[in-house]
Write a structure and sequence with these properties.
Length: 361
């Protein structure tokens, strides 16, 4: 007999797919309602019917493609150098004193390109995955793993939205919004005619009326969500970072990863324009290291000058991380048009003497 805990986990895993099933059923019904009931059964003009069906199928295919990519793209694991080796794990487990544990983790972290810290100033360590968290990486309790550049765990896709699938998630929002707006706009005329009894009272009436209300309602909510994530992309922030600014050596800085709107956009969508609108992976980098810019141009916050900030200066003098090899595309992102001061700050790393082990979920 299976233990009760295992049955509960199985039930939880099944229930997690309910929102995905709901969206899939809505999409399947909308396809039937639009193609069969509206285009085939109701619209009489052949030219209008062909144009509507062509545009509709393009949007529907892109919507389904990006949705499935968001669902089934597995999160990427942090690079192996961020994981504790077997000897380090045993050494850390044998130590009971926090000071000794700090020394072990300090030794492991000193050569890693880690710039963010916990709120207390410690290097971020996950005691469940047994790794030093790369910048912008967080442990997801639902997935029970560390997610690179974690944005949020989305129940509508039953997956974490992070570095591996954030572009797919953005395209899913964009194409689903266009899909709903197109259905609403093309269905409006026939909705008014049915409402005013201008067309025969057939089975199509229910589908056309309900499809209009559903599409217009989804359009409003999707518009707000898509606009919010467009703002996040332009600022190079995740949802988690928007609620709590990432902590650097000198303190919290919500614009620490922002390189300007164009470069921020290319970090998510890549350098090649031909892939921007396709749900294929083209994001820059490896998800473990990110260019940083510790100068804040946002008028909401005062600008930080490294020459005037003693904490940054002393930290840079105390220790330097060796520069981490980057993909060619990310190297271009760093070097193309970036100021010398920003490059110097990107190469600086700090080791925090107040290192502690903290679990962060």
């Amino acid at each position: 007999m299976a233990p009760s805990g295992s049955r509960r986990d199985d039930c939880r895993r099944v229930l997690c797919w309910v929102p995905v099933l709901f969206i899939s059923l809505i999409a399947a019904w909308s396809y039937y309602a639009y193609v069969v009931q509206l285009c085939i059964e109701t619209i009489e003009n052949m030219g209008e019917k062909i144009v509507y069906l062509l545009i509709y199928h393009i949007l529907f295919i892109m919507f389904v493609w990006s949705y499935w990519q968001t669902i089934f793209t597995k999160p990427m694991n942090p690079l192996k150098e961020f994981h504790l080796s077997h000897p380090d794990k045993e050494l850390l487990e044998r130590e009971d004193r926090r000071e000794s544990q700090q020394e072990i983790l300090r030794r492991i972290a000193k050569d890693l390109p880690i710039y963010t810290r916990t709120m207390s100033g410690a290097i971020r360590y996950c005691d469940r995955c047994l790794l030093l968290k790369p910048d912008r990486c967080h442990h997801c309790s639902a997935c029970d793993m560390c997610i690179l550049k974690m944005d949020h765990h989305c129940p509508w896709v039953n997956n974490c939205v992070g570095f591996a699938n954030y572009k797919f998630f953005m395209l899913f929002l964009a194409y689903s919004l266009l899909y709903c707006l197109f259905v609403t706009a093309t269905d409006l005329l026939y909705f008014i005619e049915f409402w005013n009894n201008g067309l025969p009272d057939t089975q199509a009436k229910f589908h056309i009326m309900f499809m209009f209300f559903a599409a217009s309602t989804f359009s409003v909510s999707l518009a707000f969500l898509f606009a919010y994530h467009c703002w996040l992309v332009c600022k190079n922030r995740s949802t988690l970072e928007a609620f709590r600014a990432p902590e650097f050596q000198h303190g919290p800085d919500k614009n620490g990863f922002s390189l300007g709107t164009s470069k921020n956009f290319r970090q998510v969508f890549g350098d090649e324009k031909k892939y921007w609108l396709l749900p294929v992976f083209s994001s820059l980098g490896d998800g473990c290291s990110f260019p940083t810019c510790l100068v804040n141009p946002d008028p909401e916050q005062p600008s930080l000058s490294p020459g005037r900030n003693p904490s940054i200066k002393s930290a840079g003098e105390s220790h330097q991380f060796p520069p981490k090899p980057l993909r060619e595309s990310q190297s271009r992102l760093l070097n193309n048009g970036q100021s010398e001061g920003s490059e110097d700050r990107d190469k600086r790393g700090t080791s925090n003497p107040a290192l502690t082990i903290e679990k962060e979920t």
